[in-house]
């Protein structure tokens, strides 16, 4: 058998020389774990016992391997499996930056026995691959050699939001809303397949996405991560997204990425648009629309999604058999997790809580009297007054398998030893989580090749596909006075975009409106910062959606439009109110993540805007205030209806 040793990793060819029949030898990857030979085949000796134990034997079926491993684990080790921690970096306790804090990682993995971590590192593909390999080297030193599952929030888009997305290192595609604007499930699946291969190449195994939430309140800050307001459209896009990431229509493939569809269920039905990360946003109101919020999740269930993440929020007005649903968040709701998700919808994968649901929310967390720090982040809605150990027990009893954003594994141990949980119930969750690790082949080889990752992630062909999607996903809402397409050599005044990009596209950037033939203003949907001291509320876009006098971009629109035909491009992270823009702009084009170059190609007629609105745009804030936070398609008189736009 031919062997190749690369950077300390044992690479073994597919089969023993001369073996015509029998199991295929997988590629093994180790840095410190030895290999052993049995029947001419190679295996990683994960616990360094010198003999082949069933969980190390890749020839055996996953249930047999999992059963053997669970039987060898201490209660403390099982409790660690039920944590999904955050990998700290040298720059940030929440993990931002370019390098992990390895002493902190060692404590989390080796002392607290945690082997699922979210990464928030940014950087090029080689750096991410090297850093994630370093994580796996730490995991090799654990008693049983259990590899890490590394997860991530979305990485391939334009917007960066703490706790929701990461940017840097990957080709930029439109936001989820942009894919919804294109109504193209095949493209959605194509993107997800590309992202799947790139995630695996850099050592990421789990996508904390997609958002199956439907955008029912226009003020909600997390609309940009959804597929819009229409349940049927969101169903199609969620289904394609999950199938592409998991690389199968029938469940997680070995070379797939675990998908965690979220947030089960009703998260966007937010009175006043407040987000459930915040104490003031902990309730939602369905107004009878729960089945419509469930519909997109059924797309994920149809292709056997591997994981589900419950919502932070409390269903305020839902009854079952005439009895109100218990007033606790999704992660603590037995009705939502056990009765509805596992019972009605037959989901048998991993239920992973959203982040920080077991943390204490003290007076400042609730009131925001002083500016929050990461230590103030907590979301235990409905169980705020329970002891922490009881929150863990309550979540597991409701149906949770794993707790996000925490490494407090001793609390599970305490819950079992105090009789609040049984070890058998813990074993059930641990079995689900470990089964996915075995299925992905991580016990054979958790390491990746940084050079190969660079070649794949930085592929010019992939970047060209992403750029083309940006152009197509633009939504042309108005084109008046013949301003588009822009003429070659036109003198253009720009606000909010690069003059160099204008020059590169064959037009002449000028310094003042007075010199221009046409103006282009790039702006975003208006917002207010209504809760500046709250960690998330101070970062999220809340409140009114209309342009008001004094808004710097709006003042520029007015000034430019008074002198020359003006093109306005608006980033629609929420549905903007454009009545007092439409009467001034010669052209309006909405975007969901697009470079200056992509926008200019469409404005110049070199590419076509195919997008249609994935939500309606309100005519006024009065219409927004009158609509239901839980119901889609219920604006009385939208200025631009759902589906407006399309090629012109």
Shape call: globular
Q: What is the helix fraction of residues, given as a range?
A: 25-40%
Question: What structural class results from the helix and strand content?
Answer: alpha/beta
CATH-level-4 superfamily name of the largest domain: Glycoside hydrolase, family 3, N-terminal domain
CATH topology of the largest domain: TIM Barrel
Number of strands: 22
User: How many structural domains can be distinguished in the coordinates?
Assistant: 3
CATH architecture of the largest domain: Alpha-Beta Barrel
Low-confidence stretches: 1-20
How widely separated are the two ends? 62 Å
The CATH class name of the largest domain reads Alpha Beta
Largest sheet, if any? 8 strands, parallel, barrel
The radius of gyration over CA amounts to: 26 Å
Determine the mean pLDDT: 94
Number of helices: 20
Query: What fraction of residues sit in β-strands?
Result: 5-15%
Strand order in space, largest sheet: 5-6-7-8-9-11-15-16
Structural notes for this entry:
With 648 residues, the chain is an alpha/beta fold. The chain has three domains: 1-60, no CATH class; 77-457, TIM Barrel, CATH 3.20.20.300; 474-609, 3-Layer(aba) Sandwich (Rossmann fold). An eight-stranded parallel β-barrel has the order 5-6-7-8-9-11-15-16, surrounded by four helices. A six-stranded mixed β-sheet has the order 17-22-21-20-18-19. β6, α4 (125-140) and β7 (149-152) form a beta-alpha-beta unit. It is globular.
């Amino acid at each position: 058998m031919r062997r190749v040793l690369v950077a300390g990793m044992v690479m073994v060819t597919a089969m023993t020389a001369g073996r015509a029949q029998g199991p295929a030898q997988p590629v093994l990857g180790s840095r410190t774990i030895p290999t052993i030979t049995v029947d001419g085949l190679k295996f990683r000796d994960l616990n360094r016992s010198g003999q082949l134990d069933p969980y190390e034997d890749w020839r055996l079926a996953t249930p047999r391997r999992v059963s053997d491993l669970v039987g060898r684990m201490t209660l403390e080790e099982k409790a660690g499996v039920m944590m999904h921690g955050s990998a700290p970096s040298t720059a940030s306790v929440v993990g931002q930056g370019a390098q992990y804090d390895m002493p902190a990682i060692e404590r989390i993995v080796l002392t607290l026995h945690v082997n699922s971590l979210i990464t928030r590192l940014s950087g090029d593909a080689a750096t991410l691959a090297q850093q994630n390999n370093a994580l796996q080297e730490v995991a090799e030193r654990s008693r049983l050699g259990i590899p890490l599952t590394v997860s991530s929030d979305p990485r391939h888009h334009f917007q960066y939001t703490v706790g929701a997305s990461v940017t840097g290192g990957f080709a930029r595609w439109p936001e989820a809303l942009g894919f919804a604007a294109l109504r193209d499930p095949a493209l959605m699946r194509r993107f997800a397949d590309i992202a799947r291969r790139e995630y695996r190449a850099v050592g990421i195994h789990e996508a904390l996405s997609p958002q199956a939430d439907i955008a029912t309140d226009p003020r909600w800050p997390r609309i940009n991560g959804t597929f819009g307001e229409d349940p049927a459209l969101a169903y199609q896009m969620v289904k394609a997204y999950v199938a592409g990431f998991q690389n199968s229509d029938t469940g997680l493939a070995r070379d797939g990425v675990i998908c965690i569809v979220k947030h089960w269920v009703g998260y966007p039905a937010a009175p006043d648009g407040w987000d459930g990360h915040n104490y003031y946003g902990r309730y939602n109101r369905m107004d009878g629309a729960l089945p419509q919020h469930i519909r997109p999740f059924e797309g994920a269930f149809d292709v056997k999604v591997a994981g589900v993440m419950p919502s932070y929020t409390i269903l305020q007005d839902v009854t079952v058999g005439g009895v109100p649903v218990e007033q606790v968040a999704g992660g603590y709701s037995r009705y939502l997790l056990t009765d509805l998700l596992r019972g009605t919808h037959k989901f048998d994968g991993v239920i992973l809580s959203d982040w920080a649901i077991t943390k204490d929310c003290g007076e400042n967390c609730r009131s925001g009297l002083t500016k929050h720090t990461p230590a103030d982040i907590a979301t235990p809605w409905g169980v705020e007054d329970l002891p922490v150990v009881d929150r863990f027990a309550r979540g597991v009893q409701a149906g949770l398998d794993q707790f996000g954003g925490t490494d407090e594994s001793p609390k599970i141990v305490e819950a079992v030893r105090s009789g609040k949980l049984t070890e058998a119930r813990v074993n059930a969750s641990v079995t689900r989580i470990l089964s996915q690790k075995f299925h992905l082949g991580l016990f054979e080889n958790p390491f990746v090749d940084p050079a190969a990752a660079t070649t794949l992630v930085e592929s010019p062909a992939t970047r060209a596909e992403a750029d083309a999607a940006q152009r197509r996903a633009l939504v042309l809402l108005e084109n008046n006075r013949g301003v588009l397409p822009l003429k070659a050599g036109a003198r253009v005044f720009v606000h909010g975009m690069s003059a160099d990009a204008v020059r590169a596209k064959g037009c002449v950037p000028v310094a003042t409106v007075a010199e221009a033939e046409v103006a282009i203003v790039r702006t975003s949907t208006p917002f207010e910062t209504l809760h500046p001291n709250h960690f998330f509320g101070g970062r999220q876009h809340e409140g009114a959606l209309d342009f008001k006098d004094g808004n710097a971009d709006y003042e520029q629109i007015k000034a430019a439009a008074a002198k020359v035909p003006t093109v306005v491009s608006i980033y629609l992270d929420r549905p903007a109110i454009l009545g007092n823009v439409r009467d001034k702009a010669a052209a309006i084009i909405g975007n969901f993540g697009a470079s200056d170059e992509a926008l200019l190609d469409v404005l110049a007629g070199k590419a076509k805007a195919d997008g249609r609105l994935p939500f309606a745009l309100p005519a006024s804030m009065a219409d927004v205030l009158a609509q239901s936070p839980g119901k889609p398609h219920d604006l009385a008189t939208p200025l631009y209806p759902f589906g407006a736009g399309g090629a012109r």
